[in-house]
Amino acid sequence: MGPDVSWKYYSVTLVIIFLNFINGIFHNKPCKHVHPKIHEVIHGVHIEPAHILKKRSIDQPLRILLYYDDSVYKLEEDKFELINNTVLPEAVSFWEKALMVRSTENVIRLNRKCENNQVFYRKGDWYSYCKNSCETRTLCGEVQVPEEHLDACRTCNASGMNCTNHDNAGTGIIGADFVFYVSAMETERCSKGQTVAYAAHCQQESALDRPIAGHANFCPNSISTKPQELAILLSTVKHEILHALGFSISLFAFYRDSEGNPLTPREDNGKPLQNTKLQTRQWSDRVIKTIIRKDWVVHNGTIEREVQVMVTPKVVKEVRNHFNCPELEGAELEDQGGEGTVLTHWEKRVFENEAMTGTHTQNPVYSSLTLALMEDTGWYTANYSMAQPLSWGKGLGCDFVMKSCKHWIDNKRSNQNTLPGLARKCNKIVKTDVKSYKLKMF
Ligand SMILES: *[C@@H]1O[C@H](CO)[C@@H](O)[C@H](O)[C@H]1NC(C)=O
Ligand SMILES: *[C@@H]1O[C@H](CO)[C@@H](O)[C@H](O)[C@H]1NC(C)=O
Ligand SMILES: *[C@@H]1O[C@H](CO)[C@@H](O)[C@H](O)[C@H]1NC(C)=O
Ligand SMILES: *[C@@H]1O[C@H](CO)[C@@H](O)[C@H](O)[C@H]1NC(C)=O
Ligand SMILES: *[C@@H]1O[C@H](CO)[C@@H](O)[C@H](O)[C@H]1NC(C)=O
């Protein structure tokens, strides 16, 4: 009986692997969140001082303003209607219901880009000043920020003196906590891979570093108006919005505790250290820890596997509870896929159909884990009634989440407990780059 069972086991596994492979080719659209580089993000937008903001409870529903670049109006009519009437309103209203922020004064005026990104800060002054001059245009992603959203140009001369306010402030953004500049341009990034949309933040406010402006670009040629693809498009747009709101390698170093204090120490300039290799700010191990998993069983022996784990408090509580594993250090982040996928998503092996993993699979869910992460930014509280249930791995214990899949399958098999479905859970296809797929047999 033994050999027969295992033959069936293997053939079922192979069929499932094959189906997954086919499925992978057609449906596993990878998210390439190309995070904004240090010089692409403008800091120091003054709304209110930190000592006032920190005291407010985080209880106001997030308000997102959409601003369309002209390119959006140039979309074919059916694509425009899909984006304007269905996709954006649903995606935006999802996060507006799911997230709350501190109330702030009603007007946000974004900072102007400085010539050569050279900025002065003056003691006792809330505002930042450009060295010599402000750029004539301030971009957010591909979109030019309209003059009416911009604060006055403030400059000092090259020695940081004779500072002036050029008195050309716009009316500002009224009644919103975050502004999204939406474009629809067939950019270079669109043609690489199967990108439908991408988004990132572009400005942060000065008191608590919350991102307050971002851009989202739709790739016109990749938008499908087929009804059966609507769910994927919607989930993708929600996913991209979340990168801009907080789940990004470019924002980890700015996360704060529940009192509003930084989780990563700051330099004299008030910002975390730069990581020149990743072109981002380096977070501390209060945000992400590197953990070595010893005795990681692979097909031909064992290896030591290094994993990156999100260790902020609510995330830790959430994953321990989900897997029923009280010793779990935190939630593992994606380690494959290169820039854009790595570290900016939950690990696929561990979280499968959570929507913030790096590739789209069927039935994506925004679970309480992702909401917990948003709370752990220190900028939001979450409405957990918006969380969608994640059944993957639920209650399966420490072995499922802390040991390799091979270890786990082997163990279950020796326990006479084999279920073909488990094989599917462990043998999966991951996309390692745009063109090649490989079996991940960990
Ligand atoms: C775009 O959507 C907004 C609100 O969802 C609506 O008021 C407006 O009429 C739409 N524009 C067009 C051209 O359909
Ligand atoms: C919380 O989510 C529920 C739906 O799950 C929604 O009805 C409610 O309005 C949300 N609360 C806030 C403050 O947005
Ligand atoms: C900046 O302005 C101050 C006077 O306000 C002047 O003394 C100084 O020379 C100026 N520096 C430069 C580089 O123009
Ligand atoms: C200070 O700057 C203004 C314009 O920015 C200029 O007109 C003025 O001459 C400068 N004053 C000095 C002392 O450099
Ligand atoms: C297992 O195989 C890989 C190549 O597939 C090789 O690099 C590695 O050294 C092998 N490990 C052991 C423990 O034999």
Brief overview, please?
By secondary structure, the chain is α+β, with helices and mostly antiparallel strands. It is built from twelve helices and 23 strands. Residues 1-27 and 428-442 have low confidence and may be disordered.
What are the main properties of this structure?
alpha+beta, binds 2-acetamido-2-deoxy-beta-D-glucopyranose, four-stranded mixed sheet, metalloendopeptidase activity, disordered N terminus, disordered C terminus, 442 residues, five-stranded mixed sheet, hydrolase, 23 strands
What does this structure look like?
By secondary structure, this protein is of the alpha+beta class. The chain has 12 helices and 23 strands. The chain has helices at residues 2-27, 50-53, 70-73, 77-98, 188-191, 230-245, 313-323, 348-351, 368-376, 398-402, 405-414, 420-426, and strands at 42-45, 58-61, 64-68, 99-102, 107-108, 119-121, 128-131, 139-140, 143-144, 154-156, 164-165, 173-174, 178-183, 197-205, 211-218, 274-275, 280-281, 288-298, 301-310, 331-332, 381-382, 428-431, 437-440. A hairpin with a 2-residue loop joins strand 8 and strand 9. Helix 7 runs antiparallel to helix 9 (368-376). The chain starts with a helix and ends with a strand. The model is unreliable at 1-27 and 428-442 (pLDDT under 50). One 2-acetamido-2-deoxy-beta-D-glucopyranose is lined by residues 162, 164.
